[in-house]
């Protein structure tokens, strides 16, 4: 085990992820309970994370001295490096040398940390994000790397196996960072690297059993990958103590509801309540133009419907959710604070507080692609696990200017044709998300010598790593032309197709 002491950096989970990728099990503990975590886990190595705090603050968080005195290898990253130095007798200077973004570090001395990656005298790109820096080293340390802004960019006390880096090896902008972390856990700490998703599965099952005991759990299925993987995992742990509730809001894509119901009921034999709430949602949305009101209406109705169904089956002690790590970060910025609400996401928050149930969130530490791996591990069909993300409010936010049954129907057909063409062209996996949007605009056309006056359909496709930023997908023009022709020929109600070439920012992926 590797213990990761979290000092509140935005990217601590990325450290854990890199360690998992190196095939080693890790646990993150907040700095306040680091000593306890250290005793409980007896880790073979410790990583100290970055932090928004400054070591020069009066109440600056520190690492427990017992960790630094236990003889285990320690890697301090950014703030972690600084607090380690300060605690061992070095000096930190605040404020003056802010450095953010790409930087280059020169390797001053060979080290097991750099073995097989960086040779002495070479320069490499690293990612910096810090306001303070180390200015005097504790005894036993030496400089192994320097950048122009950080004379102590990488330091080591090889005898004690203490390492500190001012840059962030866990982010992709430090291209060799993952290998450096792998050196730390394999070469320096001697960990074997045989941990896999299979081990995660076993461990998660144990933890769910321990937490739930003989309690009852309900899980809201959305039809997406995350809640499905969570449900299958939880079912493996506790069997029919789990009931899934699938609120069908009528805003799903073609055949989607049937697929979900078939998979859960017939294939996995998981108790499933299929709530046919289409009318409730669509009646409430009819005529509503404002995107935020639409989102909030859907969110509120979802909670009410879910709650009513949960009551019907006699309630439950636990609520299971497929919350992923990025949802945890995003929902923080989506629920007030100084950051601005761009869109109200309805699938995080709200429900647990109202229903007075404890949460079971077995995917809370994972990233999307890791959830997909876990899905494979659990035997979910590949085409299902590989599905592109789909928003909770569904097709409602792809019908700008108001939802009607008729428009949803038109949109569903166009979307199905578009996705079919994408699959046939072998492009599905290269695209983060692709979908059709039905515009509230009618234009004039001519078909078979007759005048038409029908809706415009916009096609959207983006590439992205995490949904936070995105570029439009650069299709071949023939692909677009053929797809447009098919949509116009096959869908009554659409006589014109356009392609959206906006990136994010300044656009968002969805239109509302
Ligand atoms: P935007 O449109 O904000 O979308 O660029 C970023 C990603 O989030 C998805 N999205 C949602 N997902 N509930 C969700 O589960 C929502 O309310 C929601 N709104 C947007 C969107 O599809 C994209 O993947």
UniProtKB/TrEMBL annotation:
Pfam families: GATase, GMP_synt_C, NAD_synthase. The keyword Endoplasmic reticulum does not apply. ATP binds at residues 222-228. InterPro entries: Class_I_gatase-like, GATASE, GMP_synth_C, GMP_synth_GATase, GMP_synthase, GMPS_ATP_PPase_dom, NAD/GMP_synthase, Rossmann-like_a/b/a_fold. It comes from the Bacteria. The keyword Ligase applies. Its EC number is 6.3.5.2. It catalyses: XMP + L-glutamine + ATP + H2O = GMP + L-glutamate + AMP + diphosphate + 2 H(+). Pathway: Purine metabolism; GMP biosynthesis; GMP from XMP (L-Gln route): step 1/1. GO terms for molecular function: ATP binding; GMP synthase activity. Keywords: ATP-binding, Glutamine amidotransferase, GMP biosynthesis, Ligase, Nucleotide-binding, Purine biosynthesis. Catalyzes the synthesis of GMP from XMP. This is GMP synthase [glutamine-hydrolyzing]. The gene is guaA.
């Amino acid at each position: 085990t590797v213990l990761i002491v979290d000092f509140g950096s935005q990217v601590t989970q990325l450290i854990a992820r890199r360690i998992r990728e190196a095939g080693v099990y890790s646990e993150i503990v907040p700095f306040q309970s680091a000593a306890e975590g250290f005793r409980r886990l007896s880790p073979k190595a410790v990583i100290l994370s970055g932090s928004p705090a400054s070591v020069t603050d009066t109440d600056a968080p520190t690492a427990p001295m017992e960790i630094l005195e236990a003889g285990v290898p320690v890697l301090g990253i950014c703030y972690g490096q600084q607090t380690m130095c300060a605690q061992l007798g070095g000096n930190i200077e605040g404020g003056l040398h802010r450095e953010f973004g790409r930087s280059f570090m020169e390797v001053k001395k060979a080290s097991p940390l750099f073995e097989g990656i960086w040779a002495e005298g070479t320069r490499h790109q690293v990612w910096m994000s810090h306001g303070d820096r180390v200015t005097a080293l504790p005894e036993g340390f030496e400089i192994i790397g320097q950048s122009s802004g950080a004379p102590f960019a990488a330091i080591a006390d090889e005898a004690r196996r203490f390492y500190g880096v001012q840059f962030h090896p866990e982010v992709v902008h430090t291209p060799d960072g993952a290998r450096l972390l792998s050196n730390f856990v394999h070469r320096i700490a001697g960990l074997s690297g045989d941990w896999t998703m299979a081990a995660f599965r076993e461990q998660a099952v144990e933890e769910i059993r321990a937490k739930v005991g003989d309690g009852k759990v309900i899980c809201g299925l959305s039809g997406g990958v995350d809640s499905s993987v969570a449900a299958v995992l939880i079912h493996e742990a506790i069997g029919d103590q789990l009931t899934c509730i699938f609120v069908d809001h009528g805003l799903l894509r073609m055949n989607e509801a049937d697929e979900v119901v078939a998979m859960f009921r017939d294939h996995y034999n998981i108790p499933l309540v299929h709530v046919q709430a289409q009318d409730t949602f669509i009646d409430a949305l009819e005529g509503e133009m404002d995107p935020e009101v639409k989102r909030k209406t859907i969110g509120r109705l979802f909670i009410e419907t879910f709650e009513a169904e949960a009551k019907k089956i006699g309630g439950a002690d636990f609520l299971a959710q497929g919350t992923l790590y990025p949802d945890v970060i995003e929902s923080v910025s989506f629920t007030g604070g100084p950051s601005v609400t761009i869109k109200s996401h309805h699938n995080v928050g709200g429900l647990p507080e109202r229903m007075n149930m404890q949460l079971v969130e077995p995917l809370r530490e994972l990233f999307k692609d890791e959830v997909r791996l876990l899905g494979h591990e659990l035997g979910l069909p590949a085409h299902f696990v590989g599905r592109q993300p789909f928003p909770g409010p569904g097709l409602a936010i792809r019908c700008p200017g108001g939802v009607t049954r008729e428009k949803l129907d038109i949109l569903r057909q166009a979307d199905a044709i578009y996705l079919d063409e994408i699959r046939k062209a072998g492009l599905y996996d290269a695209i983060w998300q692709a979908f059709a949007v039905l515009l509230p605009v009618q234009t004039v056309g001519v078909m078979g010598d007759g005048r038409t006056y029908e809706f415009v359909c916009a096609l959207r496709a983006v590439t992205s790593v995490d949904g936070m930023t995105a570029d439009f997908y650069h299709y071949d023009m023939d692909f677009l032309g053929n797809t447009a022709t098919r949509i116009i020929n096959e869908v009554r109600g659409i006589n014109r197709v356009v392609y959206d070439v906006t990136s994010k920012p300044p656009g968002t992926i969805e239109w509302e």
